Amino acid sequence: MQWKGRRESDRVEDARDQTVTGGGGSIGGAGTILTLIGRRFGLKGILIVIGLAFVAWRLGIIDPRMFLEGGPTTYSQPADVTPEEQERFDFVKVVLADTEDVWTKELSRLGRRYVLPAMTVYRGRINTGCGAGSAAMGPFYCPADQKVYIDLGFYDELARQFHSPGDFAQAYVIAHEVGHHVQKLLGTSDKVSAMRGRPDYNEYSVRLELQADFYAGVWAHHSQKYLDPGDIEEAMRAANAIGDDAIQKQTQGRVMPHAFTHGTSEQRMRWFMAGLKSGRLEDGDTFKMPYRDL
Does residue 21 sit in helix, strand or coil? Predict the structure, then answer.
């Protein structure tokens, strides 16, 4: 993908210097825990626990700041950034800028205004409008604050675990998450979210994810002048690797269709290619057809 020297989005927040400790709102219950220990073992028990905690702190096992508040605590420290990671950071800024250009024009064509999303690049853990985020989740979109979150280390996992190297495979992942932002603006994701708890909710989740793949293809359609030979194949390998069936086989050894949330490898590749061929947002309605025909 030809990206160097091109416009970079100014909507990318660098949070790689932030460290999040604690979590879930339960860490702040340390005082309650000490109270319970005191009731059971008395002052001696409390002193023993405090002593053990002090030793753990000195050894670097725990950070005492995680006990100071009722929820996750964020503090900053200098980030050690390698030239390779900085290049990835510059790359995602260019990709986000590309999506801004494409979706501004595409929604304008339909008489709608595209509200630019933001992107936060972080390491390890991050506080979001949707709660605590983790690198283990992979890149994700939070509709509550309309941000895409990504730990750049995911790209190593994409290449190593999912055998999908290449800059366009990386770009596809971002374009998919931005597709969720488009769904937020159109009201689609809110409608699906309202169905949470229904027996068929997973089916609607699959429809939502496949539409985001279609939107990623729409972005690719309008960005073809920047593509190199083999870029589409990179995206297809990534879509194939992160299908529900492929991930279930890899992690569980068997496929359970009732637990699908994103669609099969074949579906994800097919809907991406449909968006690439069409280039029109309105051709990607994954909610009209019967589920079995997706």
Answer: strand
Residue 15 has phi, psi (to 5 degrees) of -110, 25
At residue 240, φ and ψ (nearest 5 deg) are -65, -40
Type of residue numbered 106:
E
**Consecutive 10-residue averages of pLDDT for the chain (294 residues):** 95 87 47 51 60 55 47 60 92 97 97 97 92 90 96 91 90 96 97 94 96 97 94 92 88 88 94 97 96 95
- Alpha helix locations (H) across 110-166? 154-160
Instruction: Evaluate whether 102 touches 275 at the Cβ level (below 8 Å).
Output: no
pTM across the whole model: 0.81
Residue 76, token pair as written in the block: 């900053």
Q: How many CB atoms lie within 10 A of CB 247?
A: 17
What is the Rg, in whole angstroms, of the alpha carbon atoms belonging to the chain? 22
Query: For residues 33 and 53, what is the distance between their CA atoms, to the nearest angstrom?
Result: 13
| Coil, strand or helix at 69 | coil
CA distances from 122 to 148, 178, 208, 289 (A): 11, 17, 26, 38
Give the residue from 168, 162, 131 showing the smallest Cα distance to 149. 131
